[in-house]
Amino acid sequence: MTLSGPFTEPTSRSSASQPSRTPIQDVSLDALRIVATLMVLLIHISGKGFAGIHLPHWWAINTWESVSRVCVPLFFMITGALLLPREHSVKSILKRAWRILYVLVAWSIIFFTYLHFRHGSAPVDTWLDSIAKGPVIGHLWYLYALIPAYFVIPVLSSFHRNTALPMQVLVLAVWVLGASMIPFLDRFTGIVRLGLDFHFFYIYPAYILAGAIFYRHVRMTPARAALAFLIWIAATGCTAFFTWFYSKDLPVNTELFYEYFAPLVVIATFSLFYSLRWFASFLADRCPGSGRALTFFGSLSFGVYLIHPAIIWEFEGQGYAWNFTNPWIAVPALLLGVSIVSGAITWVVRRTVGLRWLIPG
């Protein structure tokens, strides 16, 4: 069966169930990793200024925050693009979960140690109990979410590899309805408008499935990439506008439009995933050096993600916070500095025998 429009599908059910043809190294996914990581840093640098809506800096903060809201959804889409087309075994899933678990524990202890010597923290004998109960530093929540996700991957993978594309699109559409649109409207209006119980659905697996569908089945063309990029800009602009509009008269600013399940964030994520992949592939095809650069910096992204909070704190300790000058300039300047320092540390750690296990490739 062949679908018209932007979709392509294997010619038979059997071909759909074949092992992945996903390349081991894809510069377009490296580009997405880099951008998503930088967006995480942007949120963590600018977020402290979000509360002051009536101060002159606020629109800069709202803009940086709105631009970056696709960061974590992009990570989940990358996971889906890489893992859903593959066959999985108990051994492979346990191996992936173990690799994230030991990184989570190791970096939790590293941050506990850092905080202990810098500011004083919980007694050492309580650290492991604290780690078991939840993230000791906010950004580590993603690792707590990723470990359970790996155990859902085989289910999604089997569905993706053995189910016709129209059924996948239908399930994804219903999933987005149940995990994004309905809960958003419920939160926005305070009224339950549909009695169907959508609690079965959650937005992160939807992003994983969407990543595989977009990666494997959606054809990339220059015109569609340009349109997708414009949609991302529009969705981001609407996120910023509605955040301002529905916050300006409230005692506490609303972050509802920033939520990862918010429909505008879903739209922006899908659009940027498509457009950025096309642009990165186009660039790498015409300039091999850029492809090598994307591969190199993409390999540092996980380490930058793990390290960056401590680097932000160190910059802030030296007086370089989000507002050390005009936030339109201060935030990207700090982003550059934190990225360089975090990337350099990652590069050293990954090349040091005895330490490289802290940041697996």
TrEMBL record:
This is Acyltransferase family protein. The chain crosses the membrane at residues 31-55, 67-85, 97-117, 137-157, 169-186, 198-215, 227-246, 258-279, 291-308, 328-349. It is found in: Cell membrane. GO terms for molecular function: acyltransferase activity. Keywords: Acyltransferase, Cell membrane, Membrane, Transferase, Transmembrane, Transmembrane helix. It is a multi-pass membrane protein. Residues 1-22 are annotated as: Disordered. The keyword 4Fe-4S does not apply. InterPro entries: Acyl_transf_3_dom. It comes from Pseudomonas petrae.
